[in-house]
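Check these lines:
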Amino acid sequence: METQIVITGGISSIHTLRGAVNNYNAEERRGMFYSVILTFKTKKEAVEALSEGRKYLKNEGKEIRGYSRGNSLSYDAGVAKIMNL
């Protein structure tokens, strides 16, 4: 089942989260108000992308506001949230 990660929030936070979460298995498109939509073939790929994004942000010394495995990742003014299609 296809799954999307929708990234919304402040412009710089969106770009930081997109860089942390995006991998080459995802189809990327732009949404409204600078949001980014990443489409993965399976939910497992999307969950792994969020997990890898969290690890990347922690390794870079960025302060993560919130993380819920299999659901969402929050950084600064941005949120990356998994949405099932």
Remarks:
- Strands lie at 3-9, 27-30, 36-40, 64-68, 72-75, 78-84.
